[in-house]
Amino acid sequence: MGNLKDAKLEQLADKGNGNYAYVDDLLEARKVFVQELGATLFTVAKDVKLQIEFNPAKVAAYRLVGYENRLREGRASPALRWAAAVAGIGRLLRDSEFKGQSTWGSMIALARDARGADREGYRSEFIRVAEAAELLARQARQPVGPAER
Q1: DSSP-assigned letters across all residues of 70-131
Q2: Is residue 42's pLDDT more than 60?
Q3: How far apart are CA 5 and CA 21, in angstroms?
Q4: Does the pLDDT value for residue 71 go beyond 90?
């Protein structure tokens, strides 16, 4: 083992709440990093989120894994639902390509549900404006009859 100070490595691993291994060949590397690695790992963070951007030239499709259990857990917070409603209504107002399946009715219902205490009345006013915008959008889609031309 030459210049290796086994006691020093053990002390460092203990103080750093970690592990150490002496890897001198491929078989030992396979044992340490493949077969036994899971036993030496421990959680240092919970609920970590990543933002990943895929290159569409290289990635044709992807699937989000690991959030299935969150779909069954209670609803998002009122603040998050309110923000989603405001963003959705904004996309509808712009007729954004990113509006997805959002509809006026679903976004207004989400806003109503997430309104909360609304002491100043700003959220209620926003909902009234969104309802007026929905009415205008509906009228704009109706064809003009011959008598109205």
Answers
A1: HHHS-PPPHHHHHHHHHHHHHHHHTT-TT-TT--HHHHHHHHHHT----TTSHHHHHHHHHH
A2: yes
A3: 12
A4: no
Nearest alpha-carbon partner for 105 in 82, 127, 81: 127
pLDDT for 95-134, tens place per residue?
999 898 999 999 999 999 999 999 899 999 999 999 999 9
Contacts of 133 (CB under 8 A, 6+ apart): 89, 92, 93, 104
C-alpha span between 144 and 149 (Å, rounded): 7
How crowded is residue 86: how many other Cβ atoms within 10 Å of its Cβ?
17
Alpha-carbon span 149 to 146, nearest angstrom: 5
What integer pLDDT is reported at residue 94 of this predicted model? 92
Which one-letter amino acid corresponds to residue 9? Answer: L
This prediction has a pTM of: 0.50
DSSP letters, 20-31, are -----SHHHHHI
